[in-house]
Amino acid sequence: MKLAKAMLTVAGMTALSRIVGLARDILTAAYLGAGPIADAFFVAFKLPNFFRRITAEGAFSIAFVPMYSKKREIETQKTADKFASNAFMIMLCALSVFTVLALIMMPYIIGAIAPGFSDDPMRSNLAVELSRITFPYLPLISLAALLGGVLNAMDRFAPFAFAPVFFNVALIVSLLLSGYFQTAGHAMAWGLLIAGILQFTFLLACAKKAGMRLTLGIPRLDADMRKVFYLMGPAVIGAGVIHINLFADVIIASFLKEGSISYLYYADRLNQLPLGVVGIAVGTALLPILSRAMTKKDKTEAQDLFNRSLEYCLLLALPASIALLAMPLTLITVLFERGAFDAVDSQICANVLRAYAIGLPSYVAIKVFSTAHWAREDTTTPVRISVIATVLNIILSLILIQIIGVAGIALGTGLTGWLQFYLHIRALKGHEVACFDKKFRRNAPKIILASCIMGAVVYMLDSVLHSMVFGAEIFSQIIALTGIIASGIALYAALILLMKVISISNIKRYMVKC
């Protein structure tokens, strides 16, 4: 199956990137910890990524990829390349102007997104200084995302999935060289900018090798680009709402105790490990393939693509979520508790991670639901759902922080994910493609049961090996953590095979095709 092959390709490259990213996070915790420099850097880190996800990887890709795929399917590669080249030039010009304006207005931007810093001149001034270094990353990574969308539409999924490895390696090197900079935060800010240059250069070379002919010229707002912007309108609002939601978390956390922004970052990084590998793999692989199936009006293939994607999400994301719920403190302690990150930080961060993990399966499934909307050029429905979810998330966060502190922000996010899951199911009810087939209805209860059994065993093992983790040497900690994870994976795999959710012959077939 082409979807399985594409997903495995993206998942493999993304997993490699996330592993390198985990190494980066371990070093970040050791060098930065959860103090004022870390808080300032994480705000500077989020700022260009916030706009990138709205303008490039979010709204633009949602509108651009299906149109580019259709042009390759119905017209010619030359026509598709002309369309992509014009989009490239429009993005380059618009984001260059926007970046210059943002650099000038940075003190006001930081005042808006982290108002709690106003009473702390050190964090405020550092956030402005570091953001001015990191913000030029925006046009670089946005153009890289456009090139990645082109490669995905050409069924070349590996380069775009591999590109974040350059990002993580650049930040790791910057941390190791942080002694040559004013602070570790300054080192990472420069590392982020270099990462953008590396990713853009790599994807440009890959696109040219794949046969794309990028031509530079005067940008034109032709009929195709007007349609892209028309489709982007609701998607920009939707992506903006989602990421305004993320910045609402930062704004709320900036008023809490010092280090709260950092706790959210470290916990979210672990939560993003399965969310990124599974969610990105499904979303990236599914959009161009499902778009082509709908263009050809192949309802049978489109329905199968939707169901298998959802099934793969449940198969991989649910056990990951339950494992994070079962052993958050052990994970945080072994991975981050060293250097500037102490035991108190670990406990608070573990509570945040547990709260995030509650919503993990829902957010992975939302990737599939959203892709089903985007593939048929419906960018409005996901927006309505995002607006409702954002309002609820902010309300929940403001209520829950009064009870459980910074973990309340993460819990609000987790609970809101399930609301979006429910609203997406309602919105797609009756749609001929997005309906659950017999195989999915048969396998879903088995996956839930297998995941719960695995989670109970992992929790018991974590309790038994408690002494090998807390207060022990790093070698013993790694042995204990590895043993728990390996046991959980082995048990879950055995249960899935015994329940015949997937068979050895299925695995062999996918491996041969891939």
Question: What would you say this structure looks like, in words?
Answer:
This protein is mainly alpha-helical and 514 residues long. The protein has a domain at 36-248. It has helices spanning 2-32, 36-55, 59-74, 77-104, 106-113, 121-134, 137-153, 158-162, 164-176, 184-210, 223-254, 260-295, 299-326, 328-336, 343-358, 360-375, 381-404, 407-427, 438-464, 466-469, 474-498, 504-513.
Write a concise keyword list for the protein shown above.
disordered C terminus; 22 helices; globular
Task: Write down the Rg.
Answer: 22 Å
Q: What is the averaged pLDDT score?
A: 81
Structural class: mainly alpha
Q: Compute the number of helices.
A: 22
Helix-strand pattern, N to C?
Answer: HHHHHHHHHHHHHHHHHHHHHH
Helix proportion range: over 70%
Shape: globular
Number of strands: 0
Largest sheet geometry: none
Instruction: State which percent range the strand residues make up.
Output: under 5%
Poorly predicted runs: 510-514
Distance between the termini: 9 Å
